[in-house]
Amino acid sequence: MTTARDEFTDPDGRRVGCLALFRNTAGHPLMLRKRNRDELPWCLPGGCAVGGESALAALRRKVLEETGLHATPGLLLVEHHMPATAGRAEGSNLVFDCGELSPEAEVRLKSEEFSEHAFIAPDQLADAAQPHTAARVQAALYVAKVGGGALFLEGASRPYEP
Q1: The whole model's pTM is what?
Q2: Range in 26-35, 48-57, 76-85, 147-156 with the lowest mean pLDDT
Q3: What does the alpha-carbon distance between residue 35 and residue 38 come to, in Å, rounded to a whole number?
Q4: Main-chain phi, psi angles of 80, to 5 degrees
Q5: If 0-12 CB within 10 Å is exposed, 13-18 middle and 19+ buried, where does residue 21 land?
Q6: Which has the closest alpha carbon to 67: 119, 25, 28?
Q7: What pLDDT score was predicted for residue 13?
Q8: Is a pLDDT exceeding 70 seen at residue 49?
Q9: Do 101 and 114 touch, CB atoms closer than 8 A?
Q10: Rounded to whole angstroms, how far apart are CA atoms 103 and 126?
């Protein structure tokens, strides 16, 4: 006889993508060009959390690996749920506001994964990125512009301090 799983204490595995929204002074998002994608190759910096890693730790780790930048995540701007497909697990992509990049900031790309970086105008995203990526970036830019978002808390061991 099989015992039913408790979805709270023993949930299915899900992918958690942790993405950084950096902007230039014009408000255009920093995007990275993937080497392994010919069509619509641009994406935000970041990647998936692994093991027991928190979303913020994963964001900091992946941004540093991919760009050499030290991310200081602010508000969570977007949670984009993605259903499972034949080649990808179900998951959520979290887009964090990482603020405006100084013109002096040096982006050092992970060369085996990315060929270039650029600040892409919001009205050009549909021509540069996969439809789901363009939608989440445009949504994040909108939330940042109107001043919305939510704090993303980790664990419960200490009280919140701004």
Answers
A1: 0.88
A2: 147-156
A3: 8
A4: -110, 105
A5: buried
A6: 119
A7: 74
A8: yes
A9: no
A10: 25
